[in-house]
Protein backbone atom coordinates (compact mmCIF):
# COMPACT_ATOMS: atom_id res chain seq x y z
CA UNK A 1 0.00 0.00 0.00
CA UNK A 2 1.46 3.37 -1.05
CA UNK A 3 2.08 6.26 1.32
CA UNK A 4 -0.54 8.36 -0.52
CA UNK A 5 -3.18 5.66 -0.01
CA UNK A 6 -2.38 5.40 3.70
CA UNK A 7 -2.64 9.18 4.03
CA UNK A 8 -6.00 9.25 2.25
CA UNK A 9 -7.41 6.46 4.42
CA UNK A 10 -6.23 8.23 7.56
CA UNK A 11 -7.68 11.54 6.33
CA UNK A 12 -11.05 9.93 5.59
CA UNK A 13 -11.10 8.32 9.05
CA UNK A 14 -10.27 11.62 10.77
CA UNK A 15 -12.94 13.50 8.81
CA UNK A 16 -15.58 10.88 9.59
CA UNK A 17 -14.66 10.84 13.28
CA UNK A 18 -14.67 14.63 13.45
CA UNK A 19 -18.09 14.77 11.77
CA UNK A 20 -19.53 12.35 14.32
CA UNK A 21 -17.93 14.25 17.20
CA UNK A 22 -19.28 17.59 15.89
CA UNK A 23 -22.81 16.18 15.92
CA UNK A 24 -22.51 14.35 19.25
CA UNK A 25 -20.77 16.96 21.41
CA UNK A 26 -23.35 18.80 23.57
CA UNK A 27 -21.54 22.14 23.77
CA UNK A 28 -22.40 24.53 20.92
CA UNK A 29 -19.02 26.27 20.92
CA UNK A 30 -17.10 22.97 20.75
CA UNK A 31 -19.40 21.78 17.98
CA UNK A 32 -18.73 24.97 16.01
CA UNK A 33 -14.96 24.60 16.37
CA UNK A 34 -15.30 21.01 15.19
CA UNK A 35 -17.31 22.15 12.17
CA UNK A 36 -14.63 24.68 11.19
CA UNK A 37 -11.92 22.02 11.44
CA UNK A 38 -14.14 19.66 9.46
CA UNK A 39 -14.48 22.25 6.67
CA UNK A 40 -10.71 22.69 6.45
CA UNK A 41 -10.13 18.93 6.25
CA UNK A 42 -12.82 18.55 3.59
CA UNK A 43 -10.98 21.24 1.60
CA UNK A 44 -7.88 19.06 1.82
CA UNK A 45 -9.90 16.11 0.50
CA UNK A 46 -10.99 18.18 -2.50
CA UNK A 47 -7.34 19.00 -3.17
CA UNK A 48 -6.54 15.28 -3.16
CA UNK A 49 -9.34 14.84 -5.72
CA UNK A 50 -7.74 17.54 -7.93
CA UNK A 51 -10.77 19.81 -7.45
CA UNK A 52 -8.78 22.85 -6.35
CA UNK A 53 -11.57 25.33 -7.19
CA UNK A 54 -13.97 23.48 -4.91
CA UNK A 55 -11.28 23.24 -2.22
CA UNK A 56 -10.74 27.01 -2.26
CA UNK A 57 -14.48 27.63 -1.90
CA UNK A 58 -14.82 25.08 0.90
CA UNK A 59 -11.90 26.58 2.82
CA UNK A 60 -13.20 30.14 2.41
CA UNK A 61 -16.87 29.42 3.19
CA UNK A 62 -16.95 26.21 5.25
CA UNK A 63 -13.83 26.91 7.30
CA UNK A 64 -13.81 30.70 7.11
CA UNK A 65 -16.93 32.82 6.77
CA UNK A 66 -19.29 30.04 7.83
CA UNK A 67 -17.15 29.43 10.91
CA UNK A 68 -17.22 33.11 11.84
CA UNK A 69 -21.01 33.18 11.53
CA UNK A 70 -21.45 30.06 13.66
CA UNK A 71 -18.98 31.28 16.29
CA UNK A 72 -20.93 34.53 16.55
CA UNK A 73 -24.20 32.61 16.93
CA UNK A 74 -22.63 30.32 19.54
CA UNK A 75 -21.43 33.33 21.52
CA UNK A 76 -24.93 34.81 21.55
CA UNK A 77 -26.52 31.51 22.60
CA UNK A 78 -24.00 30.64 25.31
CA UNK A 79 -25.99 32.20 28.13
CA UNK A 80 -29.27 30.50 27.23
CA UNK A 81 -27.91 27.23 25.87
CA UNK A 82 -29.36 23.94 27.02
CA UNK A 83 -27.62 20.62 26.71
CA UNK A 84 -28.54 18.03 24.12
CA UNK A 85 -29.85 15.73 26.82
CA UNK A 86 -32.25 18.42 28.05
CA UNK A 87 -33.30 19.35 24.54
CA UNK A 88 -33.94 15.92 22.99
CA UNK A 89 -35.03 12.61 24.46
CA UNK A 90 -33.27 9.35 23.62
CA UNK A 91 -36.16 8.37 21.34
CA UNK A 92 -35.85 11.57 19.31
CA UNK A 93 -32.08 11.20 18.95
CA UNK A 94 -32.38 7.54 17.98
CA UNK A 95 -35.06 8.37 15.41
CA UNK A 96 -32.86 11.09 13.93
CA UNK A 97 -29.94 8.67 13.70
CA UNK A 98 -32.07 6.04 11.95
CA UNK A 99 -33.45 8.63 9.53
CA UNK A 100 -29.96 9.89 8.72
CA UNK A 101 -28.62 6.38 8.16
CA UNK A 102 -31.62 5.50 5.98
CA UNK A 103 -31.14 8.61 3.86
CA UNK A 104 -27.44 7.81 3.41
CA UNK A 105 -28.28 4.23 2.41
CA UNK A 106 -30.86 5.37 -0.16
CA UNK A 107 -28.40 7.84 -1.69
CA UNK A 108 -25.68 5.17 -1.84
CA UNK A 109 -28.09 2.72 -3.47
CA UNK A 110 -29.14 5.37 -6.02
CA UNK A 111 -25.50 6.01 -6.91
CA UNK A 112 -24.89 2.28 -7.42
CA UNK A 113 -27.84 2.18 -9.85
CA UNK A 114 -26.31 4.81 -12.13
CA UNK A 115 -25.28 3.52 -15.56
CA UNK A 116 -21.61 2.81 -16.18
CA UNK A 117 -20.28 4.97 -17.71
CA UNK A 118 -22.72 7.64 -16.48
CA UNK A 119 -24.21 10.13 -18.95
CA UNK A 120 -22.05 13.24 -19.24
CA UNK A 121 -21.75 16.46 -21.22
CA UNK A 122 -18.01 16.67 -20.53
CA UNK A 123 -16.96 15.84 -24.13
CA UNK A 124 -19.19 18.62 -25.48
CA UNK A 125 -17.85 21.08 -22.89
CA UNK A 126 -14.23 20.19 -23.71
CA UNK A 127 -14.71 20.38 -27.47
CA UNK A 128 -16.23 23.88 -27.23
CA UNK A 129 -14.02 25.22 -24.43
CA UNK A 130 -11.94 27.36 -26.77
CA UNK A 131 -14.94 29.52 -27.70
CA UNK A 132 -14.68 31.54 -24.47
CA UNK A 133 -10.90 31.92 -24.44
CA UNK A 134 -10.82 30.73 -20.77
CA UNK A 135 -8.26 28.02 -20.06
CA UNK A 136 -9.81 27.11 -16.69
CA UNK A 137 -12.44 24.42 -17.42
CA UNK A 138 -14.36 25.24 -14.23
CA UNK A 139 -14.77 28.87 -15.26
CA UNK A 140 -15.82 27.70 -18.72
CA UNK A 141 -18.56 25.52 -17.27
CA UNK A 142 -19.81 28.07 -14.74
CA UNK A 143 -19.84 31.08 -17.06
CA UNK A 144 -20.83 29.45 -20.36
CA UNK A 145 -22.47 26.02 -20.05
CA UNK A 146 -24.07 26.86 -16.69
CA UNK A 147 -24.28 30.62 -17.12
CA UNK A 148 -27.96 30.76 -16.18
CA UNK A 149 -27.36 28.83 -12.95
CA UNK A 150 -24.40 31.04 -12.04
CA UNK A 151 -26.42 34.20 -12.58
CA UNK A 152 -29.34 32.90 -10.52
CA UNK A 153 -26.98 31.97 -7.67
CA UNK A 154 -26.00 35.63 -7.39
CA UNK A 155 -29.66 36.64 -7.47
CA UNK A 156 -30.29 34.23 -4.59
CA UNK A 157 -27.47 35.90 -2.60
CA UNK A 158 -29.08 39.28 -3.25
CA UNK A 159 -32.49 38.01 -2.12
CA UNK A 160 -30.86 36.53 0.99
CA UNK A 161 -29.42 39.87 2.05
CA UNK A 162 -32.80 41.52 1.45
CA UNK A 163 -34.36 38.85 3.67
CA UNK A 164 -31.84 39.51 6.44
CA UNK A 165 -32.40 43.26 6.23
CA UNK A 166 -36.16 42.75 6.45
CA UNK A 167 -35.68 41.41 10.00
CA UNK A 168 -34.71 44.88 11.20
CA UNK A 169 -37.05 46.88 13.39
CA UNK A 170 -38.77 49.78 11.65
CA UNK A 171 -36.79 52.36 13.61
CA UNK A 172 -33.49 50.83 12.44
CA UNK A 173 -34.40 50.37 8.78
CA UNK A 174 -31.72 51.95 6.62
CA UNK A 175 -29.29 51.95 9.55
CA UNK A 176 -26.13 50.03 10.30
CA UNK A 177 -25.90 46.29 10.76
CA UNK A 178 -24.89 44.61 14.00
CA UNK A 179 -23.37 46.22 17.08
CA UNK A 180 -20.45 48.60 16.87
CA UNK A 181 -17.40 46.43 17.53
CA UNK A 182 -14.67 47.68 19.82
CA UNK A 183 -11.36 45.96 20.38
CA UNK A 184 -8.17 46.75 22.24
CA UNK A 185 -6.28 49.07 19.84
CA UNK A 186 -3.05 47.43 21.00
CA UNK A 187 -4.43 43.89 20.99
CA UNK A 188 -3.81 40.99 18.63
CA UNK A 189 -7.08 41.43 16.72
CA UNK A 190 -6.35 45.08 15.91
CA UNK A 191 -2.79 44.14 14.92
CA UNK A 192 -4.02 41.44 12.53
CA UNK A 193 -6.68 43.79 11.13
CA UNK A 194 -3.90 46.18 10.13
CA UNK A 195 -1.47 43.52 8.94
CA UNK A 196 -3.58 41.04 6.95
CA UNK A 197 -6.00 43.11 4.79
CA UNK A 198 -3.37 44.55 2.39
CA UNK A 199 -2.08 41.06 1.64
CA UNK A 200 -5.61 39.61 1.65
CA UNK A 201 -6.83 42.17 -0.89
CA UNK A 202 -3.93 41.28 -3.20
CA UNK A 203 -4.69 37.57 -2.79
CA UNK A 204 -8.40 38.14 -3.50
CA UNK A 205 -7.67 40.13 -6.66
CA UNK A 206 -5.14 37.52 -7.78
CA UNK A 207 -7.63 34.68 -7.25
CA UNK A 208 -10.15 36.59 -9.37
CA UNK A 209 -7.71 37.27 -12.18
CA UNK A 210 -6.06 33.86 -12.27
CA UNK A 211 -9.46 32.15 -12.32
CA UNK A 212 -9.59 32.66 -16.09
CA UNK A 213 -6.81 30.15 -16.65
CA UNK A 214 -6.10 28.47 -13.30
CA UNK A 215 -8.02 27.49 -10.12
CA UNK A 216 -9.72 30.52 -8.63
CA UNK A 217 -12.49 32.87 -9.65
CA UNK A 218 -15.02 35.43 -8.49
CA UNK A 219 -16.49 33.46 -5.59
CA UNK A 220 -13.13 32.52 -4.10
CA UNK A 221 -11.74 36.03 -4.51
CA UNK A 222 -14.93 37.60 -3.16
CA UNK A 223 -14.87 35.34 -0.10
CA UNK A 224 -11.29 36.41 0.70
CA UNK A 225 -12.18 40.09 0.33
CA UNK A 226 -15.25 39.60 2.55
CA UNK A 227 -13.05 37.98 5.21
CA UNK A 228 -10.66 40.93 5.20
CA UNK A 229 -13.54 43.42 5.48
CA UNK A 230 -15.08 41.49 8.37
CA UNK A 231 -11.72 41.36 10.15
CA UNK A 232 -11.43 45.16 9.99
CA UNK A 233 -15.01 45.57 11.25
CA UNK A 234 -14.54 43.07 14.10
CA UNK A 235 -11.40 44.91 15.20
CA UNK A 236 -13.36 48.16 15.42
CA UNK A 237 -11.23 49.88 12.75
CA UNK A 238 -14.29 50.46 10.56
CA UNK A 239 -18.04 50.30 10.90
CA UNK A 240 -20.63 48.57 8.78
CA UNK A 241 -22.08 50.92 6.14
CA UNK A 242 -25.72 52.02 6.42
CA UNK A 243 -27.91 49.76 4.34
CA UNK A 244 -29.53 52.86 2.81
CA UNK A 245 -26.23 53.82 1.15
CA UNK A 246 -26.73 54.14 -2.65
CA UNK A 247 -23.13 53.06 -3.30
CA UNK A 248 -23.58 49.93 -1.21
CA UNK A 249 -26.76 49.00 -3.05
CA UNK A 250 -25.04 49.62 -6.39
CA UNK A 251 -22.28 47.17 -5.43
CA UNK A 252 -24.86 44.59 -4.36
CA UNK A 253 -26.68 44.66 -7.71
CA UNK A 254 -23.55 45.12 -9.87
CA UNK A 255 -22.88 41.41 -10.41
CA UNK A 256 -26.41 40.19 -11.21
CA UNK A 257 -27.17 43.40 -13.10
CA UNK A 258 -24.19 43.17 -15.45
CA UNK A 259 -24.74 39.44 -15.90
CA UNK A 260 -28.37 40.09 -16.87
CA UNK A 261 -27.39 42.93 -19.22
CA UNK A 262 -24.87 40.70 -21.02
CA UNK A 263 -27.52 37.98 -21.19
CA UNK A 264 -30.04 40.27 -22.90
CA UNK A 265 -27.25 41.49 -25.18
CA UNK A 266 -26.75 37.93 -26.34
CA UNK A 267 -30.47 37.62 -26.87
CA UNK A 268 -30.62 40.80 -28.97
CA UNK A 269 -27.37 40.53 -30.92
CA UNK A 270 -26.43 36.86 -30.63
CA UNK A 271 -27.92 33.42 -30.90
CA UNK A 272 -29.51 33.14 -27.45
CA UNK A 273 -29.71 34.51 -23.92
CA UNK A 274 -26.18 34.67 -22.43
CA UNK A 275 -24.62 33.79 -25.80
CA UNK A 276 -21.21 35.49 -25.81
CA UNK A 277 -19.82 36.75 -29.13
CA UNK A 278 -16.67 34.67 -29.69
CA UNK A 279 -14.51 37.70 -30.48
CA UNK A 280 -15.18 39.40 -27.11
CA UNK A 281 -16.24 36.43 -24.97
CA UNK A 282 -13.25 36.55 -22.62
CA UNK A 283 -13.44 40.33 -21.90
CA UNK A 284 -17.17 40.02 -21.27
CA UNK A 285 -16.70 37.13 -18.86
CA UNK A 286 -13.87 38.89 -17.04
CA UNK A 287 -16.03 42.01 -16.70
CA UNK A 288 -18.85 39.95 -15.22
CA UNK A 289 -16.39 38.23 -12.87
CA UNK A 290 -15.07 41.57 -11.58
CA UNK A 291 -18.60 42.83 -10.87
CA UNK A 292 -19.56 39.52 -9.25
CA UNK A 293 -16.47 39.62 -7.02
CA UNK A 294 -17.56 42.96 -5.59
CA UNK A 295 -21.14 41.73 -5.14
CA UNK A 296 -20.05 38.47 -3.51
CA UNK A 297 -17.63 40.21 -1.14
CA UNK A 298 -20.25 42.74 -0.01
CA UNK A 299 -23.07 40.18 0.23
CA UNK A 300 -21.14 37.58 2.22
CA UNK A 301 -19.81 40.17 4.67
CA UNK A 302 -23.21 41.81 5.15
CA UNK A 303 -24.95 38.45 5.58
CA UNK A 304 -22.65 37.72 8.50
CA UNK A 305 -23.14 41.23 9.92
CA UNK A 306 -26.86 40.50 10.32
CA UNK A 307 -29.88 42.78 10.31
CA UNK A 308 -29.64 46.55 10.89
CA UNK A 309 -29.59 47.20 14.64
CA UNK A 310 -28.61 50.87 14.81
CA UNK A 311 -30.07 53.93 13.16
CA UNK A 312 -27.74 56.14 11.20
CA UNK A 313 -26.10 58.76 13.39
CA UNK A 314 -27.15 62.31 12.60
- How large is the radius of gyration? 22 Å
Low-pLDDT residue spans: none
Number of strands: 2
> How much of the polypeptide forms β-strand, as a percent range?
under 5%
Given helix and strand content, the structural type is mainly alpha
Overall pLDDT metric: 84
Q: Name the overall outline.
A: globular
Biggest β-sheet description: 2 strands, antiparallel
- Compute the number of helices: 12
- End-to-end separation in angstroms reads 69 Å
Q: What series of H and E elements makes up the topology?
A: HHHHHHHHEHHHHE
Major beta sheet, strand line-up: 1-2
Helix content: 55-70%
What does this structure look like?
With 314 residues, this protein is mainly alpha-helical. The protein has helices spanning 3-24, 28-48, 52-77, 84-87, 90-112, 122-127, 137-145, 147-165, 188-210, 218-234, 246-269, 281-305, and strands spanning 176-177, 308-310. A two-stranded antiparallel sheet has the order 1-2.
Short summary of the structure?
This protein is mainly α and 314 residues long. Helix content is 70%, strand content 2%.
Descriptive key words:
314 residues, two-stranded antiparallel sheet, 12 helices, 2 strands
Helix and strand topology:
Blueprint: H1 3-24, H2 28-48, H3 52-77, H4 84-87, H5 90-112, H6 122-127, H7 137-145, H8 147-165, E1 176-177, H9 188-210, H10 218-234, H11 246-269, H12 281-305, E2 308-310
Antiparallel strand pairs: 1-2
Helix pairs in contact: 1-2, 2-3, 3-10, 3-12, 7-8, 8-11, 8-12, 9-10, 10-12, 11-12
Amino acid sequence: MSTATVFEIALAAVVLGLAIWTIAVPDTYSSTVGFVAYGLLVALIWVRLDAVDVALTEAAIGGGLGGVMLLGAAARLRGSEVTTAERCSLTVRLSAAILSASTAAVLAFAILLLPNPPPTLAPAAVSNAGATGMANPVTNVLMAFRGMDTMLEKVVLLLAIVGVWSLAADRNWGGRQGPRHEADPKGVLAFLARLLPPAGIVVGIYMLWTGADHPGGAFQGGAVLASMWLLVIMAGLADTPPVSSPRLRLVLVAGPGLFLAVGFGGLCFGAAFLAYPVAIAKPLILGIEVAMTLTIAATLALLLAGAPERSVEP
